[in-house]
Amino acid sequence: GAVVSQHPSWVICKSGTSVKIECRSLDFQATTMFWYRQFPKQSLMLMATSNEGSKATYEQGVEKDKFLINHASLTLSTLTVTSAHPEDSSFYICSPLRTGDEKLFFGSGTQLSVL
Amino acid sequence: QKEVEQNSGPLSVPEGAIASLNCTYSDRVSQSFFWYRQYSGKSPELIMSIYSNGDKEDGRFTAQLNKASQYVSLLIRDSQPSDSATYLCAVNTGTASKLTFGTGTRLQVTL
Questions:
Q1: Are B83 and B16 in contact (CB under 8 A)?
Q2: From CA B67, how far away is CA B29, in angstroms rounded?
Q3: Alpha carbons A97 and A42: distance in angstroms, whole number
């Protein structure tokens, strides 16, 4: 299988602060990383796609200056929610794409609550 | 128009029965189809993938695909209480492995 580590599992922060979420592929290399967001009782929505060493591609309606993605290595990607607000409260899930594979494996997710 | 549609449920089945979960998709060029299981507060877990028309069996799970009808289903035989979860249907239209997810069907297996 593919082991994906995502931290933190949950975070509570004050409005206006920034939160960084880390995603690591532990036993494989991922040239592509997908970041999803899931609001309560809704499905996963793709936020952005990043390729190692290049800028991320954001889906329509996702602010690139608010959700900063860094994919500096083949095993690590980070998502930073800048100046978080209560409407950013959601479940954030990373999904590194194993080279040559079509199946997606997911990190354990980060529940963000912004007060 | 939603691209991937699922009945939100809940679908309630007694323990030991067969649970049937359905999904339709709108994009005819879709090539790959996946079923994920998601427990509350957890991230999705891949159960099955299917790429060609027909049935694909893996243990108690059977995925069925009908591209002409744009329909994919998941059957769970001998349902167990531990199968109670939300089941997400996901479709890959071929764009760099991007998946489009349905809203999920909540399954409840009762004792």
A1: no
A2: 9
A3: 23
> B25, B31, B43, B88: best mutation site toward chain A, by most A Cβ within 10 Å?
B43
Residue A42: what residue type? Q
Q: How far apart are CA A76 and CA A71, in angstroms?
A: 6
A93 touches chain B (CB under 8 A): yes
State percent of chain B over pLDDT 70. 95
Contact between B99 and A102 using a beta-carbon 8 Å cutoff: no
Per-residue pLDDT tens for B72-90?
999 999 999 999 999 999 9
What's residue A41's pLDDT? 84
Could you tell me which residues are beta bridge partners of residue B105? B87
> Under 8 Å CB-to-CB from A104, ≥6 apart: which residues?
A34, A95, A97, B34, B46, B90, B97, B99
CB B6 within 8 A of CB B102: yes
- A18/chain B closest Cα distance in angstroms: 22
How many CA within 13 A on the CB side of residue B75? 15
Instruction: Tell whether the torsion through CA atoms of A48, A10, B36 and A1 is positive or negative.
Output: positive
CB contact under 8 A, B97 and A93: no
Does B44 contact A43 at a Cβ distance shorter than 8 Å?
no
Tokens describing residue A111: 């529940």
* Nearest C-alpha in B relative to A6: B43
Q: pLDDT tens digits for A59-74?
A: 999 999 999 999 888 8
pLDDT at site B2:
58
